[in-house]
Amino acid sequence: MSLEKFLNQAVSSWMSSEGPDSDIILSSRIRLARNLRNFKFPTLFTNDEAREIISKTKNIFVQENDHGFGQLEFLEIDDLKALEKRVLVEKHLISPRLAEHATHGAVLLSGQEDISIMLNEEDHIRIQCLFPGLQISEALERANVIDNILEAKVDYAFDEKLGYITSCPTNVGTGLRASVMVHLPALILTRQMNRIIPAINQLGLVVRGIYGEGSEALGNIFQISNQITLGKSEEDIIGDLISVVQQIVAQERAAREALIKTSGIQLENKVFRSYGILANSRIIETKEASECLSDVRLGIDTGYITHLSRNILNELMILTQPGFLQQYAGGPLRPVERDIKRAALIRERLKLEERRTGGD
Hints:
Layout: H1 3-8, E1 25-34, H2 47-63, E2 72-76, H3 82-90, H4 96-101, E3 106-110, E4 115-119, E5 125-132, H5 136-151, E6 158-159, E7 163-164, E8 176-183, H6 185-189, H7 193-202, E9 205-208, E10 221-226, H8 234-280, H9 286-301, H10 310-319, H11 322-329, H12 335-357
Antiparallel strand pairs: 1-5, 1-8, 2-3, 3-4, 4-5, 6-7, 8-10, 9-10
GO molecular function: ATP binding; creatine kinase activity; protein arginine kinase activity
EC number: 2.7.14.1
Protein name: Protein-arginine kinase
C-alpha cells in the first residue's frame, strides 16, 4: 500500500458496494473524538506532546495485527504536498482542519479507505468509519472495536459525570458524531428542503454540505448529523438519526414519484439535458458539473437512464473536484484549465461506460 493508491483511485473500495437505501443514502459515517489524559489539547500542546501522541497511537496499530480490518497505512500530514492533502479531503479521508491547520497532524488509513484515524486534529484522536447506504449502526460497531483497542493501551481523558473530555464543548459526553450523506434532488426541485431543514434542527440534528460544516451542498448532497453528544447514549443518538433519515428518505421517494406523475416529461427532459451537457461540454465548472451529475443520478434512480451505473456518478463526483483533477493531470492547473480538463474527463468516462454496457 502507498500514498499513490489513496491519491490515484477516485472511488474508495467501500463505495463500490451498495448498502440499504443506496438510491438516496450515499454513505453512513461515525466519528469518535478522544483525547489522552494529562496531555494538552492540540490548540495548546507542545511539539513533544504532539509527537508522543502520534507515536503512542501509531505503535498500537503497528503491533496489533488481529483486529479484523487489515493493516493501516500511516501518513504524516506535514510530509504531504498541498495538492495531496486536498485530494484526501475531497475523498473524505481527512478533514479540512487536519489538512490546513493541524500541528504535527497524521492519519492512519485502511486499505478499503473505510477507516480513518486522524491524529492531532481538533482532538488528539478522531476515529472515523464509513459504510455505504444506511449502515450507521454497523459503522458505530466498527468504530467501537477500534476505540476498545485504543482504550486498552492508552489512558483517555474521561470524567464519570461528563463522559469523554473533548477540545470543543459540543463533543463532550459520548464524543460521537454520526452522519448520513443523502442525495435529495426531488426535495430541492419541489422546494421542500427549506421547510424540512428547520424541522430537522429542532430535533437536535443539523444539515450541512458535502464536506461538513461551512461547506456547500454540491449536487444536492447533504450531510445530516447529530448536534448533541452530552446527556444522550450512543444508542439514543443513533436511533434518533436513523428515525429522521428514514423519514427524509420516504419524503424524497414520495417527491420523486410526484414529479414522475405530474411532471414526467419535464423531469425526463431535465435528466437528458444534463446528460447531454456532461457528454458534450468542452468547458464545465465544478458547480455545473455537480448539478448535472445530480440530475443524471436521479435519472438512473428513476429508471430514465438504464445504461449507466450509480458507481460512475460516485466516481465522477470526486474525480471532478479541483484537487483530484490536478492530481489526475499531474500538476497544478489554472481555473480555466481545470474546467477544460473536467469536461474532457467526464466525456471520456461516459464513453467508456457506454462501451462497457453497450448503451446507445
